[in-house]
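To assess whether the prediction recovers the assembly geometry, we first specified each molecular entity separately, as shown.
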Amino acid sequence: MAKLTILEFPDPRLRTKAIPVAAVDDELNALIDDMFETMYAAPGIGLAATQVDVHWRFLVADVSPDQSQPHALINPVILEKDGVRVSEEGCLSVPGYYEDVQRAEHIRVKFLNREGDPVEMEADGLLAVCIQHEIDHLDGKLFVDYLSEAKRQRIRKRLEKSRRHQAAAAM
Amino acid sequence: MTAGQQGARLRATAAQVIDAVTSSGRSLDAALADVEEKVAVSDRPLLRLLCYGSLRHHWRLQSWIDGLLSRPLRSRDSAVNALLAVGLYQLGETRIPDHAVVSETVEAARFLGRPKLAPLVNAVLRRALRDRIFENDPSNDEAAYDHPRWLIDALAVDWPDDWKDIVAANNARAPMWLRVNPAHGTAADYCARLAARGIEATLLPAAPQAVRLGAPQPVDTLPGFADGHVSVQDGAAQLAAPWLLDGLSGRVLDACAAPGGKSGHLLELGGDRIDLICIDNDATRLEAVAANLRRLAVEATPLCADASDPENWWDGVPFNGILLDAPCSASGVIRRHPDIKLLRRASDIGELARRQAAMVAALWGLLAPGGRLLYVTCSVLAAENDEVIAQFLEANRDARENNVLQNNNIRDLMRDKACGFQILPGTKDLDGFYFACLEKVS
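The predicted structure of the complete assembly is given in tokenized form:
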């Protein structure tokens, strides 16, 4: 297994719209293992393929406190949304920033599991929010897109500045 | 996605609460009340766990911190010291995964306004994990028993065979006990109502109204709580009212009534047979008594007054019974109030004993011949208990101890003292309480 590099806002590759996975094979499953490892190490509760510069439609998530409920969703499609929930979100591609975002409280989603079988799942609360957040990534969308233009620019500038500092320090 | 920062913020809040106790001498209840409003209801149990746990294990955690830091933090960074305690408590005593503890606790330094100390918090917690300090034997008695030196010594003198059990009980988490109002059924009936909601509960033969919950519950989830069907009260405290009222009627005084747990119990049992006067010298706390009695739909006469100064409030009509639940060190209820171990000083005990003696002496004059005074404390220290009563009995020829217990179930809980009886904390999962029943010779 290997830890992957996570793209950071405003990297233009995060704006790529991913294409459906054609075949659930060993190569894909190895990539899913790497994404779990990357997500747990970060630490994060969800990671979309887009964020590691792989532009296929799949994501991993685990919102449990003890890494006991891993979910891998391949070609996910939301079938139903219900209710409203505002919660504070952060993103491994927007490190250090947390903002309130409004999402559906409850969703029903269909996807392929790691064996390639089609399944349906209901999700509530944090898991529902997380899956919606990750599917946005597969569509080239970030949680900062829900914020005001001024706030998004402020975050972009600060992240660019801190990266320039890191680059300078590394030289 | 990453989880929001509620986790980091909550740890910062816990550190502030702990710091308010350890640095400013605030009580844990008051410090929690200051912040709890701003914390989401779903996060409050974790906040309480972190605050209670970190204070309960203060000495062990501090010995680890001292060993991990090359030099102590400055006193103005005391909140960061408290944050280190919160972090080490989680690593050593909870099942929260290590990586989550480290990231949330490091991030919390920023919410304490100390971002520059975040790397230090990170280094200390990671070193604690690498060095496996949680497996090391504690470096001294205070750390080994998580009690201050003076209290270990005092307990060892008063309870040479039991002090280690007392210390262990003090460091355990307290259960939640209820008192079932007999106007709304028996304790067994109430257990059935709880069982219907999936809440596990057990009975205590010595206290027929007592129910011990398998796990603590918010009161608003208890059936009939708002309508006075049950009150929250430790099983040991429930022994006082039936003891005082045994065969007694007429005028009764609850001399230090707040927050009104025992007043309510006296009225549940005494009904119209007794005329209860509740006094307390704190007007705000007396309000809590009134609210408690309203919930139970019972009536008493509340009076804001000092029990040790009856000249200022007593109307001269004697009482047949007096319950004196005296202000004390609370050394028997440390499991419910771990901050007691930090806030009390050895020098407090003598002062408390003098006040207790003064209260018994002052109230004795209010008792009718043949009347009964039940002296109660939630302390386990002889200086506040049997020594106060022994001295009083020696000085007052018209006072006699009644050492007959009502039944064997009660006897099984009690340790005999030279005068009076002690329940040690943890006995049948009860709080530590002392009782002495004095009667006035007619």
